[in-house]
Amino acid sequence: MSEETSSENGKFLKFIVVFVSVILTACIAQGYEYARRRPKLRSVAILVLGDVGRSPRMMYHAESFAKLGFKTYLIGYRGSKPLPSLTSRLCYLSEPPSILARVPFVLAAPVKIAYQIISILYTLMFTMSSPPEFLMVQNPPSIPTLALVWLVGRIRGSKVIIDWHNLGYSILALKLGDAHLFVKISKRFEAFFGRSAYAHLFVTRAMQDHLVAEWGLIGRKAVLHDRPPSHFHRCSPPEVHELFLRLGPSLTDPSLRSYLPSPSTPYTTQFTTTTITPSHKPLPTITASSPYSMINMPELRNDRVALLVSSTSWTPDEDFTILLDALKLYEARARQVNDGERQGKLPRIWMVITGKGPLKVKYMAEVERLQEKWNFVRCSSLWLEAEDYPLLLGSADLGICLHSSSSALDLPMKVVDMFGCGLPVCALDFACLSELVKDGQNGLVFKNAKQLAGQMEMLLTSFPKSTALDKLRSSLRQASQARAPHPVQHEESADWEWGTWTDNWNRIMKPLVLRDVERFD
Q1: What gap in Å lies between CA 463 and CA 346, rounded to an integer?
Q2: pLDDT at 410 over 90
Q3: Of 127, 27, 114, 34, whose CA–CA distance to 74 is shortest?
Q4: What are phi and psi of 168, to 5 degrees?
Q5: What is the DSSP letter of 140?
Q6: In 10 A of CB 117, how many CB atoms?
Q7: H/E run at residue 362
Q8: Which Gene Ontology cellular-component terms appear in the entry (predicted)?
Q9: How far is residue 16's CA from residue 187's CA, in Å, rounded to a whole number?
């Protein structure tokens, strides 16, 4: 071991000692007897250091625990509306002072961490009358949550479960660089406090293999692939109709109104139309005086544009320029093959981007500038309520995923949601994507903007009657209809199986948290 490495290790150990000492003092101060109460069986506290409403996997965990009869606490920050079906008790953390957003990162980080430590400790120690049997934490972020959960678990006797979504230090490295001292400290911190737990959950096999080999994790280990909840599905034309009756008034952009087919509510929307049953007197169009008994169920319009969806957090690990360049190439190609026609071999497309994030303003300003001269492409940013998001996915024709992963060890949940809604996907390639996207079966994999533009052209040619797109949809439909009691994916097999979150959770987690029960319902 070099002298430099020894010095770094010494600094890290001193940091750990000081950190733990501060936390331990705070815990002891609230009362030894209170802290030593025995954990309450069939109870769980789930901690996510982020917006609860934007943490679907942790909300799904909470729902699954509650259905199993656990008293469930979901702890995190207030923000987006949580799932309407969530029955867990929500415990919101206090937000750090807003002034910290205007302070340089190096100065703001220690203050923010100290504030978070106080808020999390207070919530874990005072909001639950008895210690929970299980204490689950989402990682990342790692600092300070892993250390706090590690310590509270030991003091209160709760079994800690770490749900490894990604690696916190790899995300920090995107901002500061791999060689930065904070990144090195973050990596050691994450390894030290994340090494031992009652159980470790991983979103990919690749992540499990990497962390077991690199950090020697102690505890039970299981891969829990993300899966959609059971209510995610492909939308019927009447559901598409209802969705765009609601969304229609919010589509106020003048260039979009003139681009999409004209609606005539409540009988037609931008994507659906209704017809009338002929009587002895033909009625060519539906009017306000048309008898309701003559109006048929909504159908998809033949003149509709192709609806494409991409969900993004607008962060550096998702390169939006790839999509932007692909849209430019598609516009040029559509002009060429359609020879100036508004509708031809390649359809007009409406690219809908959902999500919030720091780079949204920058990229959407560039989009607005470009589409002033576009004839075949429009791109809009929408924020949807939780109940409308799966309906949009279930109404769309193609999903685009730009997720590249800071660690190359996690998988994009947005693709899971799309598959759950029967939506084929074009996804940016990275190391372990094959655990989810089977190229040519449920989607296509691209490496750059040129490939993505080519895939969009291939899939959308002759839309809405596209053979290539129908083939991918059929594969998703068959996998959904043939759900097995214990769905798995076989890497070496040409076939792949699919299941809901509930299917997967009951197969992996139920035996883990009810290990003393020999038979399960």
Answers
A1: 7
A2: no
A3: 127
A4: -60, -40
A5: S
A6: 19
A7: helix 360-370
A8: endoplasmic reticulum membrane
A9: 13
pTM of the model: 0.79
What digits encode the pLDDT tens for the residues 74-94?
999 998 888 878 888 999 998
Residue 142's nearest CA partner among 103, 96, 193, 97 is 193
Nearest in space to 153 (alpha carbons), one of 98, 193, 201, 202? 193
Cite the beta strand spans of 421-500 per DSSP E: 425-428, 443-446
Owner of token pair 């509306």: 81
Would you say 401 and 426 are in contact if contact means Cβ atoms under 8 Å apart?
A: yes
Q: Encoding tokens for residue 174?
A: 């995107």
Let me know: does 247 contact 388? Beta carbons within 8 Å.
Answer: yes
Could you read off the pLDDT of 191-219 as tens digits, one per residue?
999 999 999 999 999 999 999 999 999 99
* The CATH homologous superfamily of the domain defined by 12-223: Glycogen Phosphorylase B; (3.40.50.2000)
Sign of the alpha-carbon torsion through 215, 205, 174, 355: negative
Q: Could you please report the per-residue DSSP string of 171-191? A: HHHHHH-TT-HHHHHHHHHHH
Decide: 396 and 307 in contact? Cβ < 8 Å.
yes
d(CA 70, CA 57): 17
- Both tokens of 464, joined, read 């809405």
Q: Name the residue ranges covered by the structural domains of the chain.
A: 12-223, 237-277+293-496
Closest to 19 measured CA to CA, from 163, 188, 164, 134: 188
The answer for residues whose C-beta is within 8 angstroms of residue 184's C-beta and 6 or more apart is 8
CB-count exposure of residue 441 (10 Å: 0-12, 13-18, 19+) = middle
Domains 12-223 and 237-277+293-496 share a fold: yes
> Which of 169, 121, 168 is closest to 148 using CA atoms?
121
CA-based nearest residue to 308, from 253, 252, 352, 247 = 352
Q: Beta strand pairing status for 299-300 and 272-273?
A: antiparallel
Q: What residues contact residue 156 under an 8 Å CB cut-off, 6+ apart?
A: 35, 36, 37, 39, 125, 131
Q: Tell me the residue ranges of DSSP E strands in 402-519.
A: 425-428, 443-446
